[in-house]
Amino acid sequence: MEKSLFLAQRITAMILAPLAIIHLGLTLFAVQGGLTATEILNRTQGNIGWALFYSLFVVCAAIHAPIGLRHVINEWTVMPRRWVNALVIMLGGVLLLLGLQAVAAVY
Amino acid sequence: MAALAHRLSGVLLALFLPFHFLLLGSALEGADELDRYLRFADSPLVKIAEWGLVSLLCIHLLLGIRVLCLELTHWPHRSEKLRSWILPSVIASMLVGLLFLVRAF
Amino acid sequence: MSPTDTANELLKVRIWRGREQGRLVDYEIETRKNQTVLDVVTEIQHRLEPTLAYRFACRVGVCGSCAMTVNGRPRWACRTHIKNVVTDNTLTIEPLRNLPKLKDLVCDMAPFIETWQKAGAPFSGTATRHDKPAAVKPDSAMRLAADAALQCINCAVCYSACDVVNWNPDYIGPAGLNRAWTLINDVRHSKRELTFELAFGTGGCGSCHSHGNCTRHCPVELRPSESIAGLKRAAFSGLPEE
Amino acid sequence: MTSSPHCEIDTATTDILILGSGGAGLFAGLHAKQANPDLEVTVAAKGLIGKSGCTRMVQGGFNVAVNPGDSVERHFMDTIIGGKWLPRQDLTWRLCETAVERVQELENELGCFFDRNADGTLHQKAFAGQSFDRTAHKGDLTGIEIINRLMEKVWALDLVKLEEHRAIDLIPAKDQSGIAGVLMIDIRSGRYRLVRTKTVLLATGAGPSMYRYHTPSGDKSCDGLAMALRFGLSLRDMEMVQFHPTGILAGPDTRMTGTILEEGLRGAGGYLLNGAGERFMTNYDPAAERATRDIVSRSMYQEIRDGRATQQGGLFIEMVHLGSDRVRQMFPGMVKRCGDCGFDLAAGRVEVVPTAHYMMGGVQMEIDCTTSTPGLFVAGEDAGGVHGANRLGGNGVANSTVFGAIAGDEMAAAIGRGAPLRDPDPEFVERAVARAEKPFGHSKADLSGVRERLWSVMWDKVGILRTADGIREGMRGLDDCRETLTGIGVEDHDRAFNLTWHDWLNLDNQITVSQVIANASLARDDSRGAHFREDFPTTGNLEQSTYTCTRFENEQLIQEMTPVAFTIVKPGESLIDGEAGAPRAAQNGDPS
Ligand SMILES: Cc1cc2nc3c(=O)[nH]c(=O)nc-3n(C[C@H](O)[C@H](O)[C@H](O)COP(=O)(O)OP(=O)(O)OC[C@H]3O[C@@H](n4cnc5c(N)ncnc54)[C@H](O)[C@@H]3O)c2cc1C
Ligand code: HEM
Ligand code: SF4
Ligand code: F3S
Ligand code: FES
């Protein structure tokens, strides 16, 4: 179990790395003089490539972040293990849901 | 030190990401809505928050790559060599964050 | 040991006295040219505080009995020359972190030694005392990997230096995992899969965040963090093979 | 006295009680448990299990005849010649023969990873006094590998572990039928504990720590030998104390002083220099620095005694002519160790002095590790007779692991045959407690004076070069030490981990065993092996060799000489074809 979680976290990290670099670059490029919705939407709407790109980003983040947080909470708080697991699974769900919703919204 | 910065940035990212998504998700309500938010986002406060998010992502990214190198590559004595990664990472993130701010205004 | 080449200068030594509850007590001894932290503690026991408790055996850095916290860092007392650690003419000496305190500078090492078992030791061979030793090429990759991590003196310095050990009571810690890595690289070990399972189980190397304090503090210059990284790589690529 | 609350005694019962957790103790525990897992086996050690004692400190390695070009006969002959015909030959034979099995057990069953040749076979290096390169090793810190692997196995077994328990006396049965148990102090609580048991293994590792300069670990103070003596057993060859030529001399205020620099430094061509910076070994022996341990130690001692020493009273070793980078690369561990004492081995000079290293003598044992007392076994450095007058480098760990395991097997077998749990003699227990309580009756004072006195007496009078007058003077010095010690008290308010109390007990035992060494040294009026009498500088007739036996009777030391039985070879004979007497390299002292 620990091994699978470890693998999942590192593999998603490896996927996230290039995605995040592109995302950051893009943000910096796009942010010039303030964002407008139309700008964003123009870029993303109807573009299946971007949709897939951000979906992958969201899915990976929704796997990666809860596993990371699970360690943090286990180590820095005295919360019982069971609760921690439940909490981070919830967090993963929330991230996934909101994230995909956002992607759908801009698609 | 590096681990602490990485950890804090990771945790903060995880906490702020839902709001970021929420923001984008409001595009569902239509472009107008989003525009209103983005106008609201013009306010310095939100700019700073977004700036935070960008810097955090950047630093977490760079330090994360450092951890991946530490663990998954195989060069001897890499831990010492990668110690020098820390400061440049922080500076780079600051620069990226700064760039973001400059461009945003 | 008679005091010789006394350099009149006084060294201020603050030592933890007590058990889990205790306090730092100040002593003053003369600074000498050639003294280790163990010698300082010994001198205080011989001359000033006969009931002061500390532990040592070999006095040359092979038994790993004498580790203590010196000016905030875990170190082997018998091989730490005071000139390398004194700051402001003061030494603050406390027991190791992350282990139960027995008395003064003495900790209970049992929880630490038990991490060996949790990490998948001991060795389990198929050959017996009636067989010739296995032929193992000294320059094979696995042998080199095992060799680099073998001569651990189980001093618990790394265990004491690691924050994750401090935060996570289940964590096996660097030394036990380092041993697991040598076993996984030992072609003669018949339970390599089991050792790997245990080393990656609850409190296993998935809990290590590559802080690297273990490697930074190991007095015999082993690199537990790199052994752990080796285990992590094996999660991707499978057990090392000849 | 025993009515004080401090003197209450906790009791426990076990089948097999092992004293000591060095190579001998741990192997005994392992083998006893393997022989019969249902037995309750208890290991008690003065320090932490596996971390105390000298087996961990072994540098050079383990002698074993496994190479096809070598043979048990050859190993045996080297050991007998090295021991100057004093060893008990059946014991020596058992050592050489069983060393093979033991090394293979260490490798194959325990997982020791000894160094290899390029073709994958065991690498064996040369060690002084041997006619074949037969020392198996792991780098230059072989003991760590051996003990770590043993420790792992023993920790995984279901043994009773009494860490930081100091045995203070062996307790006989009330009816004198054998051993009944051992009285200990639980160092952590300071309480007494009597462990009743069917069998006891004495494996506390002797250790000549009564000399000013000595190599053994700090927990060794000849407790086992002193206990055996008080119990009434006879010790043999006690005059045979081996000195190692190159102990570090880092000043009187550091425990690093006395610890060894490895022999390889001389082997590689290092120079020994006197206080004036001149080489002197060439004046003593044609092999110069590469002569055997005993010759080099004696020459160094003489050089020092004749006033050509350094300011601190030592000599120098210098390596720089071999090239400092090369030295750094060849001896990284030694360079670092010297650095920690403020010396630069690679580019400068390091102060050295001969240092007391090993005791060849010990409790008389049979080939199955039994002693003259039913139920009491002995193994390792506590046992005598295996090495005779000198021990070959590499035969020390071989001895402790070979006989430790035999003792484990034999103790399990003895219990199988119905070894009884005997009733302890309460009077003996009471006397033992009274002895340990002695210092609490007195006002406290500093023990350092007695310690230093003992160190000098033994070093100066019963050390590397001896004379009858000197030894007698030494004996008077020891009496003084005893008297002073008896008057010194120890703080009583906190007995838990009270090191000063244990220092007192250490000195008590060290003085006792020093007296035995002095007696035996006086009795042997010839020079052989490690024992050198300036008033009798030659070796006596080998065919009529006798060995010393010392025991306590009515508070008196009784000294006897017993003829050596040449049960396998006689002086002048050899087990090796074509070599009269011994392999030549062994006779000359291999210059490595
Ligand atoms: C620095 C050094 C280097 C050496 N190098 C070599 C080498 O290269 N090759 C070689 O063959 N030999 C070498 N030797 C010799 C060898 O180490 C010893 O002869 C051998 O290991 C002794 O083993 P042992 O089991 O008898 O005793 P030890 O390993 O010394 O163990 C003694 C045990 O008894 C315990 N003990 C002591 N007193 C008591 C008590 N009162 N109650 C309970 N427990 C007690 C101790 O705590 C310890 O656990 C070396 C020795 C030293 C000091
Ligand atoms: C995009 C959103 C991201 C979030 C929300 C996130 C969150 C987290 C969190 C909370 C942790 C736990 C920190 C810890 O255990 O100390 C973590 C760890 C980690 N993150 Fe991220 N991360 C993100 C992106 C990335 C990226 C892009 C990378 C790639 C390089 C990455 C690499 C890592 C690594 C390697 C760890 C493990 C560190 C450790 O165990 O100490 N993360 N992340
Ligand atoms: S790895 Fe190093 S620091 Fe850790 S126990 Fe072993 S020797 Fe000590
Ligand atoms: S310090 Fe601890 S976190 Fe890992 S790299 Fe070392 S074990
Ligand atoms: S006393 Fe043995 S390592 Fe320090």
Q: Could you describe the 3D structure shown?
A:
The complex is a heterotetramer of chains A (107), B (105), C (242) and D (592). With 107 residues, chain A is mainly alpha-helical. Chain A has helices spanning 2-30, 37-44, 48-76, 81-106. Chain A has one domain (2-106): Up-down Bundle (3 helical TM bundles of succinate and fumarate reductases), CATH 1.20.1300. Chain A contains four helices and no strands. Chain C has two domains: 3-107, Beta-grasp domain (Ubiquitin-like (UB roll), Roll); 110-237, Fumarate Reductase Iron-sulfur Protein, Chain B, domain 2. Chain C has helices at residues 37-48, 110-118, 141-150, 157-161, 163-167, 174-184, 192-199, 213-217, 224-237, and strands spanning 10-18, 22-30, 67-70, 73-76, 90-94, 101-103, 106-107. The N and C termini of chain C lie far apart (54 Å). Chain D has helices spanning 23-35, 72-82, 89-110, 142-156, 223-231, 264-267, 293-305, 324-330, 332-340, 395-416, 426-437, 448-461, 468-487, 499-523, 584-588; strands at 9-19, 41-44, 62-63, 124-125, 135-136, 160-162, 165-172, 179-186, 191-202, 235-236, 241-248, 271-273, 315-318, 349-359, 362-364, 376-378, 383-384, 546-553, 556-563. In chain D, strands 1, 2, 6, 7, 8, 9 and 16 form a seven-stranded mixed beta sheet that branches. In chain D, a hairpin with a 2-residue loop joins strand 18 (546-553) and strand 19. The longest helix of chain D has 25 residues, at 499-523. The N and C termini of chain D lie far apart (57 Å). At the C-D interface, helix 1, helix 2, helix 3 and helix 6 of C face helix 3 and helix 4 of D. Bound molecules: flavin-adenine dinucleotide (FAD), protoporphyrin IX containing FE, iron/sulfur cluster, FE3-S4 cluster and FE2/S2 (inorganic) cluster. Iron/sulfur cluster is lined by residues 64, 152-158, 174-175, 178, 218, 220, 222, 224 of chain C.
Number of helices of chain A: 4
Strand content of chain D: 15-25%
Pick out the low-confidence regions of chain D: 584-592
Taking pLDDT < 50 over at least 5 consecutive residues as the criterion, the unreliable ranges of chain A are none
- CATH superfamily placement of chain A: Fumarate reductase/succinate dehydrogenase, transmembrane subunit
Decide which structural class fits the backbone of chain D: alpha/beta
Distance between the termini of chain D: 57 Å
Write the CATH architecture name of chain A.
Up-down Bundle
Largest β sheet strand count, sense and barrel closure of chain A? none
Mean pLDDT of chain A equals: 85
- Give the strand tally of chain A: 0
Q: Which radius of gyration of chain A do the C-alpha atoms yield? A: 16 Å
Quaternary state of the chains: heterotetramer
Q: Can you tell me the CATH topology of chain A?
A: 3 helical TM bundles of succinate and fumarate reductases
